[in-house]
């Protein structure tokens, strides 16, 4: 049962899953979940803002757990562990922002707080009166008499995620309302000086020391790029990603049975192990693979300029599996194919949900979801990066492949994209 706006309920457990759901369709803007950890009504620093570009709080108390799609229902999830919330934090604001339209065009928007262990509903609030808002505080978790409560808020903003964030003390990468340019100063009129009766001998007063330089501020970047079937490619150069490192992150969870409200009932089993891999081809014709299988982790500062940081078996959004590409050597690349295989714990991507994020060091993140598999596929081509002049163009593939009997997933990807490598059995 949905709570009325302003109502509050006790939160009987500490490990929560906060689901922000809505119905999607043509003309419906994209919606993202976020959280702000407040002390005295403001964040202590920009680290207290958890959203798609900053998916985990340093304390581990709140993390953005990604997005799931089932038919026309979309759910963004925040995992909250109240036992890990620092004592100074009094309130956790649970918000949503719309990208490409207003919340008046988002049907069936709701927030649901669930007991993560029992998969039961603690609280639910349905937003029904949105109009021109582009950001919404749907609810908040707050301390009360040694425990926690949830309050349904339903307060909207017409200034988007940037306006919501700055109202709570976040420094963003651009001012919300740029100040008008200052008018050019008018030079003062000066009367001609009388002839000096004698030369000046009084030394000028010492100049005041310059004020101390302000501490540098690293603003939060709110921009992002989401690749879809309709818009499957993006230029890294146009997003500012021309140098530094590009991190490719894969995180996942098992899709459970639909709950009837657009949510899903269970997380991935402990033995589910997905492997993030990359086929690479350099401009000089050399080819190879970066993967955990065979301990082929690559190298960042020498060919192939791609490195896999480890073999993760949790799929956690704050860790997951990560490939790093050295964009300072982008001229050395011809193409890079990022793909993922199921090592153990499942036979197919059907029933799995995974999120891929490409985060340039100096540019907007690029993300997309993998939840469309309808074939018995243990291997998926994620993204193809191709050098075009001095730029790398990212093409969303999301291509599920079915190996022939006796053919490995790696060889299957090779054949599909014409890499032409020779393969031998390996293990990790």
Automatic annotation (TrEMBL):
<dbReference type="Pfam" id="PF02342">
    <property type="entry name" value="TerD"/>
</dbReference>
<comment type="similarity">
    <text>Belongs to the CAPAB/TerDEXZ family.</text>
</comment>
<dbReference type="InterPro" id="IPR017115">
    <property type="entry name" value="Tellurite_resistance_TerA"/>
</dbReference>
<dbReference type="InterPro" id="IPR003325">
    <property type="entry name" value="TerD"/>
</dbReference>
<feature type="domain" description="TerD">
    <location>
        <begin position="2"/>
        <end position="168"/>
    </location>
</feature>
<dbReference type="InterPro" id="IPR051324">
    <property type="entry name" value="Stress/Tellurium_Resist"/>
</dbReference>
<feature type="region of interest" description="Disordered">
    <location>
        <begin position="173"/>
        <end position="217"/>
    </location>
</feature>
<protein>
    <recommendedName>
        <fullName>TerD domain-containing protein</fullName>
    </recommendedName>
</protein>
<feature type="compositionally biased region" description="Pro residues">
    <location>
        <begin position="178"/>
        <end position="214"/>
    </location>
</feature>
């Amino acid at each position: 049962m949905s709570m009325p706006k302003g109502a509050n309920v006790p939160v009987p457990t500490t490990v929560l899953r906060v689901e922000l759901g809505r119905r999607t369709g043509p003309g419906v803007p994209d919606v993202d979940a976020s959280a702000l950890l407040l002390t005295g009504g403001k964040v202590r620093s920009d680290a207290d803002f958890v959203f798609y570009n900053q998916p985990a709080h340093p304390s581990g108390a709140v993390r953005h757990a990604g997005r799931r799609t089932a038919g026309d229902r979309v759910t963004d999830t925040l995992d909250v562990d109240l036992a890990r919330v620092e004592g100074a934090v009094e309130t956790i604001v649970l918000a949503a922002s719309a990208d490409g339209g207003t919340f008046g065009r988002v049907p069936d928007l709701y927030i649901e707080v669930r007991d993560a262990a029992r998969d039961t509903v603690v609280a639910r609030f349905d937003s029904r009166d949105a109009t021109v808002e582009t950001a919404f505080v749907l609810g908040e978790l707050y301390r009360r008499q040694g425990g926690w409560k949830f309050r349904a808020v339903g307060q909207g903003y017409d200034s988007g995620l940037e306006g919501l964030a700055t109202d709570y003390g976040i420094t963003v990468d651009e001012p919300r309302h740029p100040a008008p340019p200052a008018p050019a100063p008018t030079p003062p009129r000066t009367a001609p000086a009388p002839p000096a009766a004698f030369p000046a001998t009084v030394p000028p007063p010492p100049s005041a020391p310059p004020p101390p330089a302000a501490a540098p501020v690293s603003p939060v970047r709110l921009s992002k790029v989401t690749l879809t079937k309709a818009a499957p490619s993006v230029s890294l150069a146009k997003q500012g990603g021309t140098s530094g490192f590009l991190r490719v992150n894969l995180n996942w969870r098992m899709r459970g049975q639909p709950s009837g409200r657009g949510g899903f009932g269970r997380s991935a089993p402990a033995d589910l192990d997905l492997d993030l891999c990359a086929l690479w081809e350099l401009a000089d014709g050399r080819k190879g693979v970066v993967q955990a299988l065979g301990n082929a982790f690559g190298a960042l500062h020498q060919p192939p300029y791609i490195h896999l940081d480890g073999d993760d078996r949790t799929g956690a959004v704050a860790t997951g599996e990560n490939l790093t590409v050295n964009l300072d050597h982008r001229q050395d690349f011809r193409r890079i194919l990022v793909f993922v295989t199921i090592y153990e714990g499942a036979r197919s991507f059907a029933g799995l949900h995974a999120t891929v994020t490409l985060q340039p060091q100096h540019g907007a993140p690029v993300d997309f979801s993998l939840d469309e598999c309808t074939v018995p596929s243990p291997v998926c081509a994620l993204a193809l990066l191709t050098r075009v002049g001095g730029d790398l163009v990212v093409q969303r593939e999301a291509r599920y492949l079915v190996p022939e009997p006796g053919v490995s997933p790696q060889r299957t990807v090779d054949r599909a994209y014409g890499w032409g490598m020779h393969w031998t059995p390996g293990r990790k």
